[in-house]
């Protein structure tokens, strides 16, 4: 922990220190701007003002809007709810899908993800950051598929990463292409369909 009155160097992340507090305030402000106005209007000076931080600090630490988005996604991945273990593949996939559903259905979080996904379509660095975020989340949940294979629920050659992606893909499709409600029933359908497909061998590495 940082002692009272002692400042860490820019870029360090001592828990509870001044740098950690600055980072938290800036990332929260950046998320607000993304949710309200989208990536095109993510201005570092505006973020600094909202966060109550000097512009120089923000420009020195993050440099660009894309750099800010990259760190925001890193923080979101680190703060995400850990994997649930229910003892069955369907139970685990349902927990995963419901977590995704609650996140995307949240007005601020849903708008934030839409903004970042939109940015990723035209900014390679934003795309790299988004891919990194999902790589972390998929890796976190992949063991539930390996455990299911060990229990004999799915074929041994089932690709864990493809199963986890498949469980949340319908929810993102619903979010981005329709105005239908993103409810728990949609999450449960996605999990049930994915579990059935996995049991049938649809996600075998040789499929």
Give your account of this protein's structure.
This protein starts with 17 loop residues before the first helix and ends in an 8-residue tail after the last helix. α6 packs across α7 and α8 packs across α9. It is mainly α and 207 residues long. Helix content is 69%, strand content 0%. The protein folds into 2 domains: 51 residues, Arc Repressor Mutant, subunit A, CATH 1.10.10.60; 120 residues, Tetracycline Repressor, domain 2 (Orthogonal Bundle), CATH 1.10.357.10. The N terminus is likely disordered. The protein is elongated, with a radius of gyration of 19 Å. The chain has 10 helices and no strands.
Would you summarize the structure shown here?
This protein has ten helices and no strands.
The CATH class assignment of the largest domain is Mainly Alpha
Number of domains: 2
How far do the termini sit from each other? 51 Å
Provide the CATH topology of the largest domain. Tetracycline Repressor, domain 2
Average pLDDT, all residues: 88
Q: Cα-atom Rg, whole angstroms?
A: 19 Å
Main sheet summary: none
Class inferred from helices and paired strands: mainly alpha
């Amino acid at each position: 922990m940082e002692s009272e009155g002692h400042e860490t160097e820019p870029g360090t992340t001592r828990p509870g220190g001044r740098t950690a507090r600055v980072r938290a305030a800036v990332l929260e402000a950046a998320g607000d701007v993304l949710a309200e106005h989208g990536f095109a209007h993510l201005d570092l000076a505006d973020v600094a003002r909202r966060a109550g931080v000097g512009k120089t600090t923000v420009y020195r630490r993050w440099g660009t809007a894309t750099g800010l988005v990259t760190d925001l996604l890193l923080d979101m991945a680190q703060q995400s709810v850990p994997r649930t273990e229910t003892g069955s593949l369907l139970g685990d996939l349902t927990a995963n899908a419901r977590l995704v559903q609650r996140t995307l259905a949240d007005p601020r979080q849903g708008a934030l993800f839409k903004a970042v996904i939109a940015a990723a379509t035209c900014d390679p660095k934003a795309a790299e950051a988004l891919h990194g975020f999902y790589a972390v989340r998929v890796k976190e949940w992949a063991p539930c598929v390996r455990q299911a294979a060990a229990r004999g629920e799915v074929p041994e050659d089932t690709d864990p990463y493809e199963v986890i992606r498949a469980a949340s893909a319908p929810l993102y499709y619903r979010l981005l292409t329709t105005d239908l409600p993103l409810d728990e029933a949609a999450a449960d359908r996605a999990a049930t369909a994915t579990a059935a497909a996995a049991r049938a061998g649809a996600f075998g590495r040789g499929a």
